[in-house]
Amino acid sequence: MAGTVTASKTDPRRGQPIGRVDFTWTSDGSGNANGTTASINGTILRVATNPSTAAPTDNYDIVINDEDGIDVMAAALANRSTSASQQVIPDPGAALAGTIEPQVSNAGASKGGVISVYYR
Description:
The protein has 120 residues and is mainly β. It is built from no helices and seven strands.
């Protein structure tokens, strides 16, 4: 896998108890993107996916792996929409103390989007 992924992060703080990591991605010629991590110490509350104007192929897939290589969203981010923003709320939440890495596949060549991970 390759493509490009960048991350911007806002940690939880007093008065703002929810943190957020936005992973902005662009797929390579094979339709894949990965290679950027972010540290999270807390519980994932929600993950939102938003296709960009270079919309990915319908039913593209995302996994969010922890340091052990386990998809913390348990395949709930498979088959994303080409045009609609979507969200997944894990039950009861994925507790983490380490890094996460999103991996996008089947998106089509040079497509993009944003994966927003909200945590506390």
